[in-house]
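question for whoever is on the cluster today: can someone run the full assembly for these? two chains, 601 residues total. i dont have access anymore since they changed the login thing
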Amino acid sequence: MNDVIEQSDLEKVGSVFSKEQMLAIRDKTRAAIHLIASKVKPGMVEEDAVAMAKDILAAQGMLRGWHDVYVRFGANTTKTFGAPSDPGVVLGENDIFFLDIGPIYQQWEGDGGDTFVTGTDPAMARSAEDARALFHAVRKKWQSEGWTGRQLYDFAESAARDMGWELNLDLSGHRISDFPHAAIYDGPMATVGFCPSPLVWVLEIHIRHPARRFGAFFEDMLLDDAYFR
Amino acid sequence: MIFARTSGPPGVEGISAPGGALARGGEVSAEIVDLTWLNASVMRLLLELPAAIRFDYQPGQFLAVVPADGAPRCFSMAAPPSGRIVELHVRYRGGRGFSQWLKEKARIADRVAIAGPYGDFAWRSRGGGRVILLATGTGIAPISAMLEHALAHNDKRQGLRLYWGGRHTDDFYRAPMFRRWQETHGNFVFVPVLSRRGAAGAGFAVGRVQDVALAEASNLHNVDVYACGSPGMVEDARARFLQRADMSPSRFFSDSFEPAAVAEKSGPAAPTVAVIVKRRESADRIEARIGDTLLAALKRAGFPLFSICGGRASCGTCKTGIVPAWSARLPPPSKIERNLLACLPDSRVDDRLACQITLTAGLDGLEICPSG
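^ ran it for u. tokens below:
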């Protein structure tokens, strides 16, 4: 009973919430991530990539964000949400980077992230692929089993370990809504004792190499298979 | 006396320090004698004061590092008074401020100008009863100073329970010391509290410090509560503790630090300027600390401004109208601020982001219209 009450409280939405608009900002977010990533090149300094990302988002009317724009290069991909990057990191020819953006389009919040590699380092390439694969493995458990947030991230942690990665549970899913979701619930999905509803949560996967200084990140809205084809 | 250096914090060169005792509001030059990283983002800064200076402070108080450009940075002393050495904990914040200077340029024997002590956050407990201490982040510094004082001087039967909140296990940079104290002082209990589940292992509570503390406190009769850290924690802790009928309002003591991107540390006693908050038919005058952002000043004065992104010029929720005559006197907006203002709904030509305006002496009398 407590979980039911808690779920209705934690999954409240604002007055202009709409499924269509949430899906629209999700699409815009994913498109922006790939557009920004396509313009990130070896030799760039991370701070310049962040500025470029903000220019691109501004041009699309999405500069406003409920969190800052993160483009992380190399060893900075191990940094957790909100942690300052080491300054002056230059993207190498054989390197890794990820994006994490949380744009607000008009009144709706987007949030997404993805990881990209610039060379042929097999471990880096595998980490980017595994972050996406783990995202979908967790999402499928949500879809097929109806697991709670806690169960989903217990599974994610175990599965990440089996894949050879360490899961950063500081980035463990959160609410999303018509702006601002933070006024409703600003906590992690990983602590909720109910099965999260679609459209109003994002699932985050941040894995790190157990020995080397890089990681990979993937984040998208919690939705069923039909939205990932 | 003029201190000449080849390097120093931005704007601190050429400080004139008084001789003799450190007067309240005066400034003296202190020497950096140790600079050690306590974890990935917090530095321990040890300053040595001149031999002629007496710096008497109460554990819990803070001092100001005073750059000549009028943007003081305030830090609580992290240990009780001990001769000429003062210990501060400085969180690295990047940018071009004091913490960046410490990280990149400061060397042993460099000098900084300081003033103080300031603040009324201090140990008030007189023995008997119990004490609950709440801290987040570097809010542990004044709490730690008070605890060290209390354990050395107070009633050994007085129960002291410290709840220190952090996001990651690495945040608890003073945990080994607190665990030693717990072993040697039977009346002291240390509870590290992780805000999120994450890498929590044995010995960590999970949640918000105030929630964990309240859940463990079945009875608040004869209990003193000290809270220091983020404004959100302090304000919520105050509200929630005082909701309890058995908690005495006069026994809740607190000091708020500003959010990461807003200011290094807040405090009530630094130099101030007036800000006039205009409404249609009335106006409020608030006293704001020089060096604070306009956002921090308005929040401290009780104006209900949102700041979802934490002062990073991302969300636009602190958009504030500036009276046109004052707009031209503000530094122009950065490209990021300008672009963000341009994409906000209903943005007007004299709107600015309160988080991006640093109050200086030249802005004394600044007139704003928060509702546009």
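summary bc i know u wont read the tokens: Confidence is low (pLDDT under 50) at residues 1-25, 259-268 of chain B. The first strand of chain B starts at residue 28 and ends at 37.
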